Amino acid sequence: MELNNDEIRRYSRHLILPEVGLAGQKKIKATTVLCIGAGGLGSPIAMYLAAAGIGKLGIVDFDTVDYSNLQRQILHTDADVGRPKAQSAKETIAGINPNCEVVIYNTRITSENALDLIRPYDIVVDGTDNFPTRYLTNDACVLLKKPNVYGSIFRFEGQASVFAPHLGGPCYRCLYPEPPPPGMVPSCAEGGVLGVLPGIVGCIQATEILKLAIGKGTSLVGRLLLFNALDMKFRELKLRRDLQCPICGEHPTIKELGDYEMFCGIAPEPAAPQSNPDEVTVQDMKKALDDPKLGIKVVDVREPDEYEIARVKGVPLLPLSQIQQRLTELDPNQHYYIHCKAGVRSLKALGFLRERGFKYLKSVKGGITAWSDEIDSSVPRY
Fold first, then answer.
1. Is 188 considered catalytic here?
2. Which of 97-101, 170-174, 180-184, 254-258 has the lowest mean pLDDT?
3. Smallest Cα–Cα separation from 309: which of 256, 239, 382, 206?
4. Do 293 and 258 sit in the same domain of this protein?
5. pTM, whole model, 2 decimals?
6. Is 259 found in the same domain as 331?
C-alpha cells in the first residue's frame, strides 16, 4: 500500500521517526479499526487515528448527540445536537483527514450482529460505557482472535489495557469474571466525569492501536494502566490469564455469544411500560406540594452539589449518602415522596427505608428531570 505525495507531506513527522518510517506508515494505512462508541472515549480515539493515517475506521453508535455530551465528546459540536453520533463523527473525521475511509454503523452492537461487525477489522477499540457491551465486545474479540483495546472512565479515574489472549495476554473476563450488581456502579450521568479524562484515556487507547499497527514498543497486553487525574498519578497492575476463564481458558465453555443483559443482571424492557406500585409521577408530587392537607412530605435524596444546580422549591435535601446517619430526622409513620435526578437513587432510598420499618413511601418516577420537562421548565436540566 503506497503513499502519494500529499500523504507523505501529511505524515512527514511520522516518517522521520525511525520506529515508524515509510514502512510503518504504510502499515498504519493498511490497518482497519472498529471503534465501538463515538462518545467520550471514541472522540479522541477516532480523531487521532484518522489524523495518524489509519486506512479504514468503522464507527458503531446508535445514539444521538445531546447537550450534556459536548463537555467531553469533542467529535460533536453545538450544531450536531439531536443528530446521530455516527454521522456527526464521520463528518468531523472527513474534515481531519479525507484519506481515512469511514464506515458508520448507526446501530447498537448486539449478540446477533457483533461477529459480523468485528470480523472485517484488524483491531477493535472499546469506547463503551456499560458492562453488557464490554463483555459482549470481549467475547466476540476472543472468538475472532482480534485485539480488544480497552478503556473506561469514571469521575476523575480511568483505566486502559489491551485484551488479546491470542497474543498471550488475558481477556476482560480474566480481570472481571463477574459484573458488579446492577446499579452498584453509577453511570457518568449519575456520577459525573471530568471532561478531559476521556481525552487522556482515549489517547492512550489510540497510542496502543498505532503501536499494534506498526508492531513496535511494549503494548498494554498483560497490564492494566490506572490513571487518577486529581492526583495526576499513573499506576500499573500486572494481569495474568485465568486458566479457568470460561472463554479464553484451557477448557472454554463459552463457544458463542449469549444474553449479556441477563448475564449482567439487567431485566429486559417490557414490551409495554408497566407501572411500578412504588412509584408516583411528578404530577402526584406537585399535588403533594400544593396541598399540605394530603399529609405527604417530599424529600430530595440527591447530593448537595446537585441540589445547588437545581432544586424544587420547598423540598428539603437528605442525600442518599447520608441517609443512614440521619435516619432519626425521618418519621416512620409519615408519608414520603422521594425524588432524585431520574428515579434510580430514590428507589434505592425507598428500599433502604422500607427495610427499617418505613411503610408509607413512594419514589418519584423520572425525578427532577421529569419535573423540569413536565412541570417547571425554569428548573435546569443537568
1. yes
2. 180-184
3. 382
4. no
5. 0.84
6. no
Domain membership flag for residue 21: no
C-alpha cell read off for 234: 499513573
Looking at the fold, whether 218 and 100 belong to one and the same domain comes out as yes
For residue 308, is it within any domain? yes
Structural domain harbouring 311: 279-374
Residue 15 dihedral angles phi and psi, to the nearest 5°:
-65, -30
Q: 340 catalytic, yes or no?
A: yes
List the grid coordinates of 120. Answer: 472485517
Candidate list 188, 245, 248, 264, residue with the active-site label? 188
Q: What are phi and psi of 296, to 5 degrees?
A: -110, 125
Residue 271 lies in a domain: no
Query: What grid cell was written down for 371?
Result: 419535573
User: Could you report the per-residue pLDDT of 314-369, keeping only the tens digit for each?
Assistant: 999 999 999 999 999 999 999 999 999 999 999 999 999 999 999 999 999 999 99
Claim to verify: residue 83 and residue 180 sit in the same structural domain: yes
From residue 334, give the alpha-carbon distance in Å to each of 59, 84, 313, 317: 52, 47, 20, 16
Rg (CA), the chain: 24
- The domain that holds 203 is classified in CATH as 3.40.50.720
What's at 24, amino acid-wise?
G
Pairwise CA distance, residues 115 & 97, whole Å: 28
- Grid cell locating 212: 499494534
Q: Which residues pair with 285 in a beta bridge?
A: none
Q: What are the residues facing 159 on neighbouring strands? A: 152, 226
Is 181 in the same domain as 61? yes
CA-closest candidate to residue 41, choices 191, 207, 162, 206: 206
Are 36 and 170 contained in the same domain? yes
DSSP reduced 3-state for 368: helix
Q: What is the pLDDT of residues 255-286, one digit of tens each?
A: 999 999 999 988 665 555 568 999 999 999 99
346 plus 210 within the same structural domain: no
Residue 369 placed within a domain:
yes
